[in-house]
Amino acid sequence: MASREVQSSATVNGDATPALEKAVAYGLPNPDTESEVSRLDVQHNIWALTLRGLSTTPGPQPDQPFSVIDIGCGTGAWSLSYANANPSAKVLGVDLNPPVPKEKPANCGFLKANVEEQPWEEAFLNEHGPFDIIHARMLVLGVRDWELFYQRCFKALKPGGWVELPDCRLGIWAADGKGDPPSAVETWGLTLEAATEADGRDWCANEKTTARLKALGFEHVEEEWFEWPAGYVDEGNVGKLDKGEQERQRMIAQLTLTNAQGFTMPVSKGLFTRSGVLGMQEAEALGEKAYSGLTEEGAEKRRYYLSMSYHKGQKPRI
């Protein structure tokens, strides 16, 4: 989408707080549009299925204060779910367009802020931190300076606190390798790489995450990669699993197709054109072909998938 102005006011638990006013360019629609809210909720559910829960980091202990920040919270699905599941934790969701839920637990609040442009760790530490968990999911299109972002995370954590980073390597990939010539879906993925680079962002930044976290002094750094199949699973392998695991993997595939088809056209009309890689007419045509290509004849054989990663690291206790 085109650049937009972020208002210079914010609300946390009903209280107005200042935030930095900035024109922000982003590759996807505002998370307050109906279609994008639906897509982000689908994406949240895929991550919960993938990780078999909301988080793999230690949760709050009885009678101990526990503070969590969800950076790039989008619809607030993770913030709200974590707050409901952990009533003793204080959860803060931060986004350029934070949600205004009709109902929320008393231990959850939302703040409008641009963590790329302001030293958020200093502003948030005074009132909300330091944090036991920093959750920053799917920021590949939202962060340009990853080393600075991780430095701020390190500073904002309590000793012994964790940062967890579910993200993706941008693109749509085929399990049977690159086509010759590339399909419309593969062409869309290659165009996404080019547009992201032209926009000053790193489409495969998560490939460097482990090294960057360790260089800053994070300990117990873990890295795990997942393939989210877009609609089709390898039945030869899935059929050998127990019934519950079969259902989980098929649900991930079904939801991933919905997710992928939900972002192909918005990214085409937004990021592809804003970066100058394609004109609007070309971008719309490619978006339509990619959308259809995910389910057209032969797609089951190609088995398109999204390449996802999960990283976490702990700040030393001393």
Describe the structure concisely for a colleague.
With 318 residues, the chain is α/β, with parallel strands linked by helices.
Please tell me about this protein's structure.
39% of the residues lie in helices and 24% in strands. It is an alpha/beta fold. A 7-stranded mixed β-sheet has the order 7-6-5-8-9-11-10. The chain is globular, with a radius of gyration of 20 Å. The termini are far apart. Mean pLDDT is 87; it is low at 1-25.
Q: Strand-and-helix sequence, N→C?
A: EEEEHEHEEHEHEHHEHHHHE
Report the major sheet: 7 strands, mixed
Average pLDDT figure = 87
Portion of residues in helices?
25-40%
Q: From the alpha-carbon coordinates, what is the Rg to the nearest angstrom?
A: 20 Å
Q: Roughly what fraction of the amino acids lie in strands?
A: 15-25%
Q: Counting H and I runs of at least 4 residues, what is the number of helices?
A: 10
The separation of the N and C termini measures 44 Å
Structural class: alpha/beta
Q: Give unreliable regions as ranges.
A: 1-25
Number of E strands: 11
Quaternary state, please? single chain
Choose one word for the global shape: globular
* Strand arrangement across the biggest beta sheet: 7-6-5-8-9-11-10
